[in-house]
């Protein structure tokens, strides 16, 4: 569950902390008070793109932080491990997001930096957000198919179908490439042959380009290297007045000095050591310099080899590894084209087998979907009757179509809200209030089949009122028994069902506007319900009505 949400310097919010509870948490407030800012903070934490305009005027940055407590953290810990993030300790997960006014920011999970994609992946395991326009997704056939599969836990048969479908696509693409016109195939063979020959003539070896560059550097400056090296060696050992001769003279003086001054014994040893180091360094330099040769022929070969490597890397990739990868790919493509007759025969046989597998696995999946469709239709119908459609019927129609990535099936949700009305596709329903309740019913059904701990509803009660609002409130409270539910609402009929109630208000202090959030209990909650019933001017009647609604 979401334990704490902190928001700082986001739009009108200077600093707000909300401590949520399990069950149904309702958030109310007048239009424009800033309820959407709280959801905006949650969206930021779950990976939405940020804009520096979100930063409160006068602030350098805005931020949001959420603390989640997970009862079953294994799936989350597995994901965190793949993202290189520390696991949850005692099931606690902390997400932080900072957006700077100057641009940029930070994304942190358990104090480890992550990408926006990482935030999104984590968010998908934590929160299911449903906004005022999300019910339109329920009209999308792809979404309807996903709902059906989620309800039936059909991930395995769908994945089994998808694997052979992907194989079929790869085989068909290969066959199409091989089956091009003779002129096109001949042109491809010529091009591939040229590429393979060009690269093979270079005979590239990983690391050789770097070695050639280093040797080229040495050979092209050989004369100067030898001059400098010879000067250094003369200064150290071989020339008149060299460092080695000076150290030898010093050792002779130290030999006599050590007999007169005990401390000089250590100086004598150090001088001997220095002399040995100078001698060793001079010999090592000599060994290396003896191999340096100003060879014009070698220099020319190195320049040609280096230029050839640079040309290949410009044409086929930024590194020798890329060039070798292009070589391997082109050799394989050339092999396939040169043996395309035999390969086409093999492909035709393989395609027949894989097409048969696609149809077989697709029909197995389709059969399971039809079985699940009946159960889903009954379950949603039950929920709809609790949401103010006592005589409604919901249907899930599954028909076989052409193979596609999701299977052979086309799914269509149907709805008949009243007795005597025919079943119609859900997309033909004009009322957004009806669609919102269908979405809520669907969410209620799916809630028992998923592991997402937090459900967020933003104005799911739009265009509803009276008893319909009560029905929605009861359904949200019912969802709150299996999930933590956060709901932004304008309806008192919904708000009274909350286990925890927050009110958002806009206030002015020192010529600045602030959005603040209060947790309501007792008389303060009664007053908020009364405000929702009758406006700012509270009356004895609205207060009594509010108390009666809260008592249920």
Kindly describe this structure.
- Among the domains are: 1-132 and 459-517, Rossmann fold, CATH 3.40.50; 208-331, no CATH class; 521-552, no CATH class.
- It is of the alpha/beta class.
- The radius of gyration is 38 Å and the shape is flat.
- Helix 9 (243-260) runs antiparallel to helix 10 (264-289) and helix 17 (522-534) crosses helix 18.
- The longest helix has 47 residues, at 340-386.
- The protein contains 18 helices and 15 strands.
The CATH homologous superfamily of one domain corresponds to P-loop containing nucleotide triphosphate hydrolases
CATH class of one domain: Alpha Beta
| Beta strands, count | 15
**Main sheet overview:** 6 strands, antiparallel
- For the biggest β-sheet, the strand order reads 2-1-4-5-6-7
Discrete helix count: 18
**Approximately how much beta-strand content do the residues carry?**
15-25%
Structural class: alpha/beta
Task: Give the CATH architecture of one domain.
Answer: 3-Layer(aba) Sandwich
How far apart are the termini? 27 Å
Helix fraction by DSSP (H/I, runs of at least 4):
55-70%
- Low-confidence stretches are none
What are the SSEs and their pairings?
Layout: E1 2-10, E2 13-19, E3 24-28, H1 35-45, E4 61-69, H2 74-82, E5 92-100, E6 105-109, E7 112-113, H3 116-126, E8 127-130, H4 141-152, H5 155-178, H6 182-202, H7 208-220, H8 222-238, H9 243-260, H10 264-289, H11 296-316, H12 320-338, H13 340-386, E9 393-404, E10 407-416, E11 424-425, H14 432-447, E12 454-458, H15 466-479, E13 484-488, H16 492-495, E14 500-509, E15 512-520, H17 522-534, H18 540-551
Parallel strand pairs: 3-13, 3-14, 8-12, 12-13
Antiparallel strand pairs: 1-2, 1-4, 4-5, 5-6, 6-7, 9-10, 10-11, 14-15
């Amino acid at each position: 569950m979401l334990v704490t949400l902190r928001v700082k310097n986001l739009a009108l919010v200077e600093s707000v902390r909300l401590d949520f509870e399990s069950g149904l948490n309702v958030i109310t407030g007048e239009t424009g008070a800033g309820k959407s800012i709280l959801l905006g903070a949650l969206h930021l934490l779950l990976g939405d793109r940020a804009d520096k305009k979100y930063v409160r005027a006068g602030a350098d940055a805005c931020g949001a932080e959420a603390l989640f407590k997970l009862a079953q953290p294994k799936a989350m810990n597995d994901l965190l491990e793949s993202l290189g993030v520390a696991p949850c300790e005692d099931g606690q997960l902390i997400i932080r997001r900072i957006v700077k006014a100057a641009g940029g920011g930070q994304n942190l999970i358990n104090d480890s930096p992550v990408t926006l994609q990482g935030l999104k992946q984590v968010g998908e395991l934590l929160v299911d957000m449903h906004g005022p326009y999300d019910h339109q997704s329920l009209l999308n056939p792809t979404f309807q198919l996903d709902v059906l599969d989620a309800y039936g836990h059909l991930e395995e048969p769908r994945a089994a179908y998808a694997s052979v479908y992907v194989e079929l696509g790869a085989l068909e693409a290969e066959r199409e490439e091989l089956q091009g016109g003779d002129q096109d195939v001949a042109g491809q063979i010529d091009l591939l042959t040229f590429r393979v020959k060009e690269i093979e003539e270079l005979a590239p070896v990983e690391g050789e380009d770097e070695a050639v560059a280093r040797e080229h550097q040495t050979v092209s400056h050989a004369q100067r290297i030898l001059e400098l090296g010879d000067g250094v060696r003369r200064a150290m050992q071989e020339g008149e007045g060299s460092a080695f001769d000076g150290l030898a003279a010093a050792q002779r003086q130290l030999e006599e000095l050590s007999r007169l001054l005990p401390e000089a014994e250590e100086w004598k040893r150090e001088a001997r050591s220095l002399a040995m180091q100078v001698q060793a360094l001079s010999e090592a330099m000599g060994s290396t310099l003896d191999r340096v040769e100003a060879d014009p022929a070698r220099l020319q070969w190195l320049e040609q080899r280096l230029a050839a490597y640079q040309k290949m890397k410009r044409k086929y990739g930024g590194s020798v590894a890329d060039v070798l990868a292009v070589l391997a790919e082109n050799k394989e493509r050339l092999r396939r084209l040169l043996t395309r007759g035999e390969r086409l025969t093999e492909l035709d046989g393989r395609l027949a087998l894989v097409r048969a597998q696609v149809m077989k696995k697709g029909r197995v999946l389709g059969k399971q979907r039809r079985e699940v469709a009946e159960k889903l239709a009954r379950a949603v119908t039950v929920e709809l009757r609790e949401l103010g459609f006592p005589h409604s019927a919901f249907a899930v129609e599954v028909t076989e179509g052409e193979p596609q990535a999701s299977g052979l099936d086309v799914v269509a949700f149907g709805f008949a809200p009243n007795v005597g009305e025919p079943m119609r596709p859900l997309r033909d329903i004009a009322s957004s209030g009806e669609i919102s309740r269908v979405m809520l019913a669907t969410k209620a059904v799916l809630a028992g089949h998923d592991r997402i701990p937090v459900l967020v509803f933003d104005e799911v009660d739009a265009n509803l009122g009276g008893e319909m609002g009560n029905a929605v409130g009861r359904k949200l409270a019912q969802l709150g028994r299996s999930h933590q539910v956060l709901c932004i609402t304008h309806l008192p009929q919904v708000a009274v069902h909350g286990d925890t109630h927050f009110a958002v208000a806009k206030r002015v202090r020192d010529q600045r506007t602030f959005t603040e959030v209060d947790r309501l209990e007792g008389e303060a909650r009664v007053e908020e319900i009364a405000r929702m019933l009758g406006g700012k001017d509270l009356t004895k009647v609205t207060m009594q009505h509010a108390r009666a609604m809260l008592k249920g």
